[in-house]
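Hi D.,

Good news: the full-assembly prediction came through. Inputs first.
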Amino acid sequence: MPRTAMTLSALVTATGLLFALSACQPNDQSGAKDDGTISVTSTDDKCEVSATEASSGTLRFDVKNDGSKVTEFYLLGEDGLRIVGEVENIAPGLNRTLTVSAPEGKYFTACKPGMVGDGIRGDFTVTKGEAGDQADAQDSQLKDQATSQYASYVKDQAEQLLSGTKEFAQAYKNGDDDKARELYAPVRMHWERIEPVAESFGDLDPKLDLREADLEDGQKWTGWHRIEKDLWPPATGYTALAQKDRDALADQLVTDTQTLHDRTRDMTFTADQLSNGAKELLDEVATGKVTGEEETWSHTDLWDFQANVDGARIAYEDLSPLLKKRDTELDSTLKTRFKDLQKLLDQYKEGDGFVTYDKLSKDDVKKLSDAVNALSEPLSTVTDKVVE
Amino acid sequence: MNEAPRDEHPTTTRRGFSRRALLGTGAGALAVGAGLGVAGPPAVAALQDTLGDRAPDDVVDFHGEHQAGIVTPAQDRLCFASLNVLTKDRDELIGLLKDWTAACRRITQGLDVTETGFDGGSEYAPPQDTGEAHDLSAAHLTVTVGFGRSLFQDSSGRDRFGLKSRLPEGLVELPHFPGDKLEDARTGGDLCIQACADDPQVAVHAVHNLIRMGFGVVSTRWMQLGFGRTSSTSTEQATPRNLFGFKDGTANLKAEDASAIQDHVWVTDDSWLRGGTYLVARRIRMILETWDRESLTGQEKIIGRTKGSGAPLSGGEEFTPVDLGMMGSGNQPIVPEDSHVRLAHPDTNDGVQMLRRGYNYADGTDTVGNMDVGLFFIAMVKDPATGFVPIQKKLARQDALSEYLRHTGSGLFAVPPGVSQDAADYLGRPLFEA
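Then the structure:
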């Protein structure tokens, strides 16, 4: 259950910060290091930037806080308002790096010791580099395209999850256990596909997806896995739930899913949330599904497995046009590894679904685990390529 | 660890005198059998003679008000064993503790387990010492023994050895913590032995020989090797890095801070456990495969410190106190709410601190080839009910790090006070004879 998933704070885009223009003495222009890194020293009353000019493309600012207050560093557009890039929360004594992609133009650098006020500004110029500005503009378009496609995907999955959950809950309430068992895994796939998004709502995730082993003493157990145990009860020592408990659980499941659905209506994403989300989905597979820990009673782990992989693949495919430009080799590696993993998963298909986890041999599980690791490792490097 | 140039100087090591060299001085009439014999009064005096004033500087005294291996600067290697007591005879159990005490007095000084040693006895009898540490130095060996709850009463509450009324209050049944995946074969036990040394072979030799002495009286339940201490327990030690690559134990209690040790480690009530402590052991698997895929910023936010210097995210350098109140952008705490440092910090735990003394472990792989590696967590606390349970509950529930951790083993032991130079004294005597 990753808690590092897309945090809510990261979903809020920083816009509209007002900076009054304040002139600052321009620094020496030849201060960039050999690798192009520009160093910035922020103190309580100064913002020393080692260069005031750079050529367009990827810029790296290495910001050191030599002051006594928490500081921030910004690269602002010509209007002094638009934030091109920012790095926050640089505590006294620490270093942070800001990497941004900036086309030709006039900019401002700004340190903001104490995180209040206008910031200590300096002029900054980006000259035309070899790559050219057209590329930068195109990248920005590709990024927008990727994130809006992904937002649509999340909305669509949330809709299907809600309608499926309603049907499932009704069957369970009606005592139609065969139907409920039939619906359980396919409906959950919609949840599993967008799991990092769902988990970003820290209040909903434990209500909906907590496993028995994750419970603490005295905690009330609700959600999918509580019903799972009732539908696939252990052979001994289990008392089936009474009708009123069934009703309560089913209604709660629908209510919580409705809340989730509503919250996804106007969510927006950034490119790194897509890549990090994909990585987290594969982490889920590696720690929960490969080991058969997710679906203790129904053993439908491979449905979840497939859904996690689906969700990761969609995020990757949305980012792929951008990634291809930034790192062709990584893009093609990922394409191959997704294909390899899918091919392996396909071997366990049975009817509309999969064989149950308990049918897998140790050797089968090992092969799946290897394929997940083979994909996860390169997938974890995507964020660095698309974040700028 | 031990890089003795054995070819040239087969009887000494870089760190000090070997067992062979010490035995060469030949003094002392020791009558400790490998079986159930009891050390007589001359034992300690004889040992002193053996060592004379040549006591090498890599010996940690086994004797004292408290057992060694608690506030002793953490050595680099661990061999830990948990045992079940088989006998129903209280005297037999006491006999074993006396034998262990006699053996510990010797091996912590770099000597064989008995004077007859590993090759001095009859050629027709098995050697009394198993021999694998014979040419090695004492390597700062400490042996620390503890008693589990199940020694006092069995699972159905029945008294064992007439000790039930003496069950210490703090020796509770640890609750199930969220996310626990405890394996029976790595959990619990009636007795524990913690052997720490600079050299793994010396630590293993200690446990090996104590187990051997106990056959028929005890049986080994589980055993754990550890390497690379994961905490510094002295201000003289640099903070080591754990397998996540982060400095660990920066804010640990330090032996030099006598009043904090008094407040948080030693039992100070009037029970038989006075001068002792509680040892909490947790085998915590670290899921390195997924951790390694987390970005640098992500890792630092989970821990609450920078990876490089180990400075808290609130700034400064490694030993700068964490400023939990410092706010960052968006009026969010700069040390995240779910970061390990914040959740484990005394300020968020009613001032509770523990003396951590854990080790890394690497036990091969699981069935799919993922590394079974992690932290063998050991903490010494004055009262587990206040000093461990609440904080572990909180970490299991909220710590962002929990996603990368899996608790697979667990043990809680009451560690009796230390043993005096008096040859009649033995490990756990206040429990049995008060």
